[in-house]
């Protein structure tokens, strides 16, 4: 496999059983993403974008087909194996932020470093929070932060481990347009600075337009 | 190390955010209840036992008609027991020309080892306690003897061959006992004077006793040492033999206190189960996120197990400290109940507390934690993705084991523990089933009701699983509390009615057969209320099923004594046939016998066994036809061994009875004795006072421990508040956004919780009535259904659960919806 390719999907299909029979959510997707590339996956609701993102990040397993992330074949690993790959190579930004409510902002950012057993977690997290402009809010709990601030903490958490691939699922979906714009700026700024690969799912045409490549999904397949 | 570091950090952070407070509190209260109550139960149990020991004037005593080997006393002292000797005999005492038969007791220094002597300068005076015994050359006649002899302090009494000066009048001694041989008035002297009296002759009827007292372990060691070495005629008497009435009170108090402690712990277990459930629900998202960030299942499980283990350590430490302080405070509050020489608190409760905390977490929280580790990482993107449901055995087996372990650890008897655990499980199962049906029914009636009611009932039926779980938790909690309330009431009622104000206070023994009707008439004329008159004859059990009784074996203890035997056609209402049948008219004169349960247990008898008795030199072979449970604390004439009428009628015997009798002045008794000179009068008023005092203290202990159990019930309430608080914050916020008024939301929450309380309350109160009935049978109490308690239980549950609901909803109502929804 080309060393420059960090993410590859080959004939990936995901089916689920429902009361109406078997539903195919993702159908025969083939995809290659190169290092430092930014890719947007767009499409109407129910097109299978988030499911594809979950498969590419190893959060879900395909019904058939194979996926490689950072040179490791995700589809051949068990749950803990995929967790190991994510710990080493993946960062996440979610639509609903997913901060741990019992942890302060800085503790949320420290979490991935702590899970990897790294020592200077607090200093690095503090630096990252300062970079997203929240140095003064480090000791605040998620409930004490606005939506935009929570998403900035989430982005600091996603970037602090210097992942090879940053996955973002509707990162501006829960934010008003001006806050959303500031978040987009920050996302691309961090992406360029850390030279990570960015794969994001969005409805937002403007956000998609800022990516190097736009893939459109419809009925579970890439158009 | 990394896992421990993360677990420590996670614990610190979650603690700070208040997530773990209720779980920790439930554990701490459970540990406090177990250590505090357990400790108190143990100490109070021993105090009641100790009070009962006073009736023996010792913890145990070796008795024999022969002089006891000095080796016995040496061995007891070597084991660290305190000892004293008593030698007693019947002999005539002279004061000048006046003489009277007296029970002469020579005692050694240290007597009595338990309880105290009361002495005075005048007969029948109130008296003051003393630690001393008569000095050599002196004697203390009791009031009756002093009065009969016309002796006073300073008189010289001739006892056998020696003259002893009266230095005090003996008012009471603790071991006055209830055995009917002790009806002669008494005289106490120093055993240094015994030889000088020359009363100990080969033909004299002596009773020797070695009194021992000390800690339980040394007593057991002495018992174990003594049993195989006991010579014929030697017996080791303990508290239960001395007074069945006090033995009963102590046993029931002990059982009740243990049960109360157990209920406190089980209530906390319910609280732990509830909080563990909500703990897991709260951590689903966090665990999914940790997995997304690369945490393995092992790491997730390790972190949470360590976290809970650390929590258990903290809870055990604080809980045990609180338990210790509580029992110390209670002991202080119950001052006077406990003797000073009880062993001090040991570190054991702390260890037990930790084991219980870990067992409860393992039983109730571990299965949920295992489920937590199976939450798919995909949940971060799709909130509907949950952990696969637990296997049924995994969900229930650890909890069942934990409950059984805690029950057995508290009750200490497998059979009782299994019964209790089975009852607990059956109650939980029945509550779940009925709860399920009732929630379904609530869902149906909601269609025809107003908004608040509809919304409340809709919540109840929509969250079906959660509602049923809460009905089970609340129902179990209320049921346990109600069962305990019922038992406490029955126990107190039984105790109080067992010693009513009208309980007989005099026993009359040796009533000649030909005088029995006259005597009964005389008693009634004197204003007394005599109980039944029963014939009484002495006899000895010689064989069981043709085989002579092995006197060395423990079963021989009851058999080798001469027994009082009786016969009667009527079974008193203080006797209950537990097996076999009471005499039918055709049984008159047949060789049958009815045996009291104590005797049955001691000898291991069964229906149909043949017993050989020697009664006044005549041999009788009889068959065991029934067993009886005797209510000894009725203080009415009762016998271990009863024959049908017509079998022993020919043997020479006398009659006995008891009566509530308040003699009109000192002359009344003298007049009765003059008219019926052979009748022995035995006043048990002092014994009754002693029994009442034991019971009063046991009642205080029971009340205090019950208060502790109520506190444990509060943790269930707190757990319920926390468990339901989270899930309704979001819904409340949405309802408010949609324009629901605050009052509507409060009403709807109150409806939901009141309905939950009603369902749990009805099930719990009914279950408690059944459980109380079953347990009362086990503890020999009289169960009465109490409608007031039933309604009180239901209304109380509605009130408490509605309060929990209001407390759970209030924060959501006070918080702006924006902060919850965004």
Can you give keywords for this protein?
heterodimer, A: 223 residues, alpha/beta, 7 helices, globular, B: 822 residues, alpha+beta, six-stranded mixed beta barrel, six-stranded mixed β-barrel, 23 helices, 24 strands
What does this structure look like?
The complex is a heterodimer of chains A (223) and B (822). With 223 residues, chain A is α/β, with parallel strands linked by helices. Chain A has helices spanning 49-56, 79-89, 105-115, 121-131, 147-159, 177-194, 205-209; strands at 5-18, 21-34, 38-42, 64-69, 72-73, 90-93, 165-169, 197-201, 213-218, 221-222. Chain A has a 6-stranded mixed β-sheet with strand order 6-7-8-3-9-10. In chain A, α6 (177-194) links the parallel β7 (165-169) and β8 (197-201). In chain A, α3 (105-115) crosses α4 (121-131), α3 runs parallel beside α5 (147-159) and α4 (121-131) packs across α5. The model of chain A has no long low-confidence stretch (mean pLDDT 88). Chain B has 822 residues and is of the alpha+beta class. Helix content of chain B is 55%, strand content 17%. Chain B contains 23 helices and 24 strands. In chain B, the strands form 3 sheets. A 6-stranded mixed beta barrel of chain B has the order 2-3-10-6-8-7. In chain B, a hairpin with a 2-residue loop joins β20 and β21 (618-630). Residues 178-182 of chain B have low confidence and may be disordered. Classes of the chains: A alpha/beta (223), B alpha+beta (822).
Order of helices and strands of chain A: EEEHEEHEHHHEHEHEE
Placed side by side, the strands forming the largest sheet of chain A appear as 6-7-8-3-9-10
Oligomeric state of shown chains: heterodimer
Mean pLDDT level of chain B: 78
Total strand segments of chain B: 24
Ranges of chain B where pLDDT stays below 50 over 5 or more residues in a row are 178-182
Main pleated sheet of chain B: 6 strands, mixed, barrel
Unreliable spans of chain A: none
Largest interface: A-B, 38 and 29 residues
Globular, elongated, flat, extended or rod-shaped: what is the shape of chain A?
globular
The counted number of beta strands of chain A is 10
- Helices of chain B, by number, come to 23
> Which range best describes the helical content of chain A: under 10%, 10-25%, 25-40%, 40-55%, 55-70% or over 70%?
25-40%
- Overall 3D geometry of chain B? elongated
Structural class of chain B: alpha+beta
Strand content of chain A: 25-35%
């Amino acid at each position: 496999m080309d060393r420059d390719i960090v993410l590859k999907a080959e004939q990936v299909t995901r089916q689920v059983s429902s009361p109406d029979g078997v539903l195919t959510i993702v159908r025969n997707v083939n995809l290659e993403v190169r290092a430092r590339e930014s890719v947007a996956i767009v499409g109407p609701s129910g097109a299978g974008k988030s499911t594809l993102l979950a498969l590419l990040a190893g959060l879900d397993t395909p019904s058939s087909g194979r996926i490689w992330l950072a040179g490791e074949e995700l589809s051949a690993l068990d749950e803990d194996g995929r967790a190991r790959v994510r710990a080493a190579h993946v960062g996440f930004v979610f639509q609903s932020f997913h901060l741990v409510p019992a942890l302060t902002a800085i503790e949320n950012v420290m979490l991935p470093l702590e899970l990897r057993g790294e020592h200077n977690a607090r200093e690095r997290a503090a630096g990252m929070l300062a970079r997203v402009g929240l140095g003064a809010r480090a000791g605040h709990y998620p409930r004490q932060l606005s939506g935009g601030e929570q998403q900035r903490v989430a982005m600091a958490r996603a970037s602090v481990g210097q992942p090879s691939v940053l996955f973002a699922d509707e990162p501006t979906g829960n934010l008003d347009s001006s806050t959303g714009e500031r978040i987009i700026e920050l996302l691309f700024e961090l992406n360029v600075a850390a030279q990570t690969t960015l794969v994001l799912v969005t409805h937002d045409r403007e956000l998609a337009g800022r990516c190097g490549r736009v893939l459109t999904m419809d009925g579970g397949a890439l158009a | 190390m990394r896992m421990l570091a993360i677990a420590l950090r996670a614990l610190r952070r979650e603690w700070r955010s208040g997530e773990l407070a209720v779980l920790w509190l439930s554990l701490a209260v459970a540990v406090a209840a177990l250590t505090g109550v357990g400790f108190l139960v143990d100490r109070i149990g021993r105090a009641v036992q100790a009070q009962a020991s006073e009736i023996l004037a010792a913890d145990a005593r070796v008795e024999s008609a022969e002089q006891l080997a000095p080796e016995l006393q040496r061995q007891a002292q070597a084991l660290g027991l305190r000892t004293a000797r008593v030698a007693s005999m019947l002999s005539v005492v002279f004061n000048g020309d006046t003489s009277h038969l007296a029970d002469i007791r020579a005692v050694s220094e240290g007597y009595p080892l338990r309880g105290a002597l009361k002495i005075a300068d005048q007969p029948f005076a109130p008296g003051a306690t003393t630690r001393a015994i008569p000095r050599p050359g002196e004697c203390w006649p009791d009031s009756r003897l002093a009065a009969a002899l016309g002796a006073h302090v300073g008189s010289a009494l001739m006892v056998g061959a020696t003259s002893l000066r009266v230095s005090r009048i003996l008012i009471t001694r603790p071991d006055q006992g209830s055995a009917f041989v002790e009806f002669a008035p008494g005289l106490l002297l120093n055993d240094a004077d015994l030889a000088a009296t020359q009363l100990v002759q080969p033909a004299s009827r002596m009773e020797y006793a070695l009194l021992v007292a000390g800690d339980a372990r040394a007593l057991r060691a002495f018992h174990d040492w003594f049993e195989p070495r006991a010579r014929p005629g030697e017996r080791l008497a303990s508290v239960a033999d001395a007074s069945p009435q006090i033995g009963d009170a102590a046993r029931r108090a002990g059982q009740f206190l243990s049960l109360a402690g157990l209920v406190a712990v089980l209530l906390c277990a319910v609280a732990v189960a509830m909080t563990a459930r909500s703990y897991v629900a709260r951590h689903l998202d966090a665990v999914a996120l940790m997995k997304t960030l690369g945490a393995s299942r092992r790491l997730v499980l390790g972190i949470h197990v360590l976290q809970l283990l650390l929590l258990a350590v903290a809870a055990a430490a604080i809980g045990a400290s609180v338990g210790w302080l509580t029992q110390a405070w209670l002991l202080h509050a119950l001052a006077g109940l406990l003797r000073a020489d009880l062993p001090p608190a040991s570190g054991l409760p702390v260890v037990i507390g930790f084991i219980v905390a870990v067992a409860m977490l393992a039983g109730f929280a571990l299965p949920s934690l295992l489920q937590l580790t199976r939450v798919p990482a995909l949940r971060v993107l799709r909130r509907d993705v949950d952990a696969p449901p637990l296997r049924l055995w995994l969900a229930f087996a650890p909890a069942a084991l934990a409950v059984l372990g805690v029950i057995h650890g508290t009750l200490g008897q497998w059979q009782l523990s299994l019964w209790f655990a089975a009852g607990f499980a059956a109650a939980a199962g029945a509550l779940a089933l009925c709860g399920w049906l009732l929630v379904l029914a609530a869902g149906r009636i909601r269609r025809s009701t107003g908004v608040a009611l509809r919304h409340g009932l809709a919540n109840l039926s929509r969250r079906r699983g959660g509602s049923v779980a809460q009905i089970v938790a609340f129902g179990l909690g209320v049921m346990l509390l109600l069962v305990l309330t019922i038992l406490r009431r029955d126990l107190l009622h039984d105790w109080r009615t067992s010693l009513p104000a009208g309980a007989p206070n005099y026993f009359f023994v040796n009533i000649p057969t030909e005088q029995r009707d006259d005597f009964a008439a005389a008693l009634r004329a004197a204003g007394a209320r005599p109980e039944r008159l029963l014939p009484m004859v002495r006899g000895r059990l010689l064989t069981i099923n043709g085989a002579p009784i092995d006197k060395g074996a423990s079963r021989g203890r009851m058999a080798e004594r001469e027994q009082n035997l009786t016969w009667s056609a009527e079974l008193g209402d203080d006797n209950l046939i537990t097996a076999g049948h009471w005499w039918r008219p055709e049984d008159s004169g047949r060789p049958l016998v009815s045996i009291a349960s104590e005797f049955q247990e001691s000898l291991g008898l069964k229906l149909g066994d043949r017993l050989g008795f020697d009664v006044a030199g005549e041999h009788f072979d009889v068959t065991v036809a029934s067993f009886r449970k005797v209510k000894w604390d009725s203080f009415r004439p009762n016998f271990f061994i009863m024959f049908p009428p017509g079998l022993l009628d020919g043997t020479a015997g006398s009659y006995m009875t008891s009566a509530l009798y308040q003699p009109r002045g000192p002359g009344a008794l003298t007049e009765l004795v003059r008219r019926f000179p052979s009748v022995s009068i035995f006043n048990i008023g002092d014994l009754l006072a002693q029994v009442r005092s034991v019971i009063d203290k046991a009642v205080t202990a029971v009340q205090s421990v019950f208060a502790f159990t109520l506190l444990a019930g509060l943790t269930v309430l707190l757990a319920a508040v926390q468990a339901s608080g989270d899930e309704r914050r979001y819904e409340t916020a949405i309802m408010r956004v949609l324009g629901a008024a605050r009052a509507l939301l409060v009403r709807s929450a109150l409806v939901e919780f009141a309905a939950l309380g009603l369902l749990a309350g009805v099930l719990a109160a009914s279950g408690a009535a059944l459980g109380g009935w079953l347990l009362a049978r086990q503890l020999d109490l009289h169960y009465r259904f109490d409608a007031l308690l039933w309604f009180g239980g239901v209304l109380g549950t509605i009130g408490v659960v509605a309060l929990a609901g209001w407390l759970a909803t209030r924060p959501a109502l006070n918080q702006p919806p924006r902060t919850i929804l965004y």
